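--- STAGE predict ---
source: upstream dedup step, 1 unique chain passed
mode: sequence only
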Amino acid sequence: MSAPQTLKDPRSPELTALEDIPQYEAFRQAVHDNFRPSSLLHQMLADDYADLFWIKKRLTAIANQVFSQEILDTWDEVSQKYPNADSMLHTVYAWNRLHTKDGHARTQAYIAGAFTRSLSELRSLEPLLERQAR
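--- STAGE serialize ---
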């Protein structure tokens, strides 16, 4: 896979180099169609809502990938220590390892903080946009 030509789409500051621009644009349009913003302020709020929801989606995907990779990385170790290990034991073991690795703990803390901030901002925008949609 070759490196992307640009790091961000200038129209969408929330997109990374590897994200699907048409998918984001379709999502953004769906948000606008749902809330039907009629003023510049409401259009900006709808854009913010779409961006924040997109970020939340990305952070969830990153967290899931990190966690899934840790399960795969520890699979053999768990299976050797506990030959009858079920999926729950593999999950708990990987979760524990993530929390004890310094780099992973910092990454997880960053993801959790960004996710919480995005969710909080989404919740604060929702009532404004719902009033507009009525």
